[in-house]
């Protein structure tokens, strides 16, 4: 992925007929891959609590996802994704409130920034590509069908754009394809990492849930 691109995505629960439907819609199965994601954070989850997700993906390297301008709205999310070491380190320093120092790349900065591995799991992914609505000149939509090694399956309809101004059109295409795939309007399954934490690190999960609820509470209202 190009540095600083915007990933607009919508997750869904894949069913037994999802792949057949993708084929009917002209989708091409590009590849099937298996990779390990290892997520890093401070022991208090300072990154995740600030909606920053640092991972090392086998075969790809370091990636940092964080909330874009529009963030989460309705059933879709919009995250910025950095893949260049210096840009990742600069963003990590900013969110952790640390003075930027060091040129040794992300791995060399884990210790100084107090980051440690908090989750690690393997995903098997079928990646589909769709030239949607015959728009060959436009970038394709991708559909990933994932199964994690702890038994959780989730799908994702995704578009990559480079400018905020391209997001509404990408969203329109994502919503159209989602409804052609039979995705329910209110369907919003959790990310693999969130289910991993819920199952294997319930205290970390509860911490993130508390932050999420606080974020979603209307301004001026108190926690019950
Ligand atoms: C953004 C995010 C997480 C990071 C992992 O993102 P995800 O889209 O699940 O990765 P993956 O591997 O399925 O797809 P790829 O990156 O290859 O396209 S984990 C959770 N979130 C968002 C989030 C949040 N902020 N709070 C809660 C409670 N849930 C989810």
Characterize the structure shown.
- The chain has helices at 18-24, 46-49, 85-96, 105-110, 167-180, 192-200, 202-216; strands at residues 5-12, 28-41, 52-57, 61-73, 76-82, 116-130, 141-148, 153-161.
- The protein has 224 residues and is of the alpha+beta class.
- It has a single domain, classed as Hypothetical Protein Pfu-838710-001, CATH 2.40.320.
- Strands 1-5-4-3-2-6-7-8 form an eight-stranded antiparallel β-barrel.
- A hairpin with a 2-residue loop joins strand 4 (61-73) and strand 5.
- Helix 6 (192-200) crosses helix 7 (202-216).
Q: Biggest sheet, in brief? A: 8 strands, antiparallel, barrel
> Strand tally, please?
8
Overall average residue pLDDT = 88
- Extract low-pLDDT stretches: none
Overall form: globular
Number of domains: 1
Bound molecules: Thiamine Triphosphate
Reported by name, the CATH topology is: Hypothetical Protein Pfu-838710-001
What string, H for helix and E for strand, traces the elements in order?
EHEHEEEHHEEEHHH
In the sheet with the most strands, the strands line up as 1-5-4-3-2-6-7-8
* Helical segment count: 7
Tell me the structural class. alpha+beta
- The share of residues in helices is 25-40%
Radius of gyration over C-alpha positions, nearest whole angstrom: 18 Å
């Amino acid at each position: 992925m190009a540095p600083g691109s915007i990933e607009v995505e919508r997750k869904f629960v894949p069913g037994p007929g999802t792949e057949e439907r993708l084929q009917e819609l002209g989708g091409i199965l590009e590849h099937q891959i298996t990779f390990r994601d290892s997520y890093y954070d401070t022991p208090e989850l300072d990154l995740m609590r600030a909606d920053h997700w640092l991972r090392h993906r086998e075969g790809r390297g370091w990636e940092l996802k964080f909330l874009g301008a529009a963030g989460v709205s309705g059933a879709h999310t919009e995250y910025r994704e950095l893949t260049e070491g210096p840009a990742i380190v600069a963003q990590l320093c900013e969110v952790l409130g640390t003075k930027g120092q060091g040129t040794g790349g992300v791995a060399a900065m884990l210790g100084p920034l107090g980051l440690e591995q908090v989750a690690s799991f393997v995903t098997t992914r079928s990646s589909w590509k769709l030239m949607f609505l015959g728009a060959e000149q436009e970038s394709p939509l991708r559909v990933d069908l994932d199964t994690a090694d702890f038994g959780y399956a989730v799908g994702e309809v995704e578009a990559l754009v480079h400018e905020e101004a391209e997001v509404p059109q990408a969203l329109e295409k994502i919503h159209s394809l989602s409804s052609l795939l039979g995705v329910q309007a209110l369907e919003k399954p959790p990310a693999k990492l969130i289910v991993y934490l819920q199952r294997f690190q319930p205290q970390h999960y509860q911490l993130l849930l508390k932050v999420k609820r606080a974020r979603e509470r209307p301004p001026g209202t108190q926690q019950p």
